[in-house]
Amino acid sequence: MEQKADAVDAILAQWRCERPELDVRAMATIGRLKRCSALMQRQLDVAFAAYDLSNWEFDVLATLRRSGAPYCLAPTALFSTLMITSGTMTHRMQQLEKRGLIERLANPDDARSKLVQLTQSGLALIDRAVEAHVDNEQRILAPLAAEQLAALDQGLIALLALLEPDQPRDC
Question: Is residue 60 classed exposed, middle or buried when 0-12, 13-18 and 19+ CB atoms within 10 A define those classes?
Fold first, then answer.
């Protein structure tokens, strides 16, 4: 099956004209990954907006939710999972706390820090939003055949193993 040219093909063609000696195969793959990410994020953001959530708000609430009851984490565990700085985390926690979606509790193991916990309102919101998010992701990928999805997933697993070699792979 012949594939239609995409936006990355145009960029590659320009490089081939300007610098024909360069091997731009890796640029093609990474460019497509970045473009797919940006285009998918737009579609994900629409689903989040239906619940009055931004992408980062969804990520914080979902991280707390999937941590299991009592849906509570230390800020360091939260910001390392989300790959953000502690300063960014503090600002985000303040915003979510103002909205009544999280609360900060005394940490019995460390008097210098507080724990972050979903409120009942935050739990109810993320439970609704994550269902819509999963449906949205399935809708986005539905046009791909099962074999294409499996091959894509295997390729991304291999790439992630190279980029984050120290990450645990179990539950």
Answer: buried
Short-list 46, 44, 42, 39, CA closest to 8? 39
Q: Are 8 and 31 in contact (CB under 8 A)?
A: yes
Helix (H, G, I), strand (E, B) or coil at 119: coil
- Chain length of the chain: 171
Phi, psi of 116 (to 5 degrees): -110, 130
DSSP H stretches of helix in 5-69: 7-18, 25-49, 55-66
pLDDT in tens, 101-151: 999 998 888 777 889 999 999 999 999 999 999 999 999 999 999 999 999
Task: Report the C-alpha gap between 71 and 106 in whole angstroms.
Answer: 15
Q: Give me the mean pLDDT over the 144-170 stretch.
A: 87
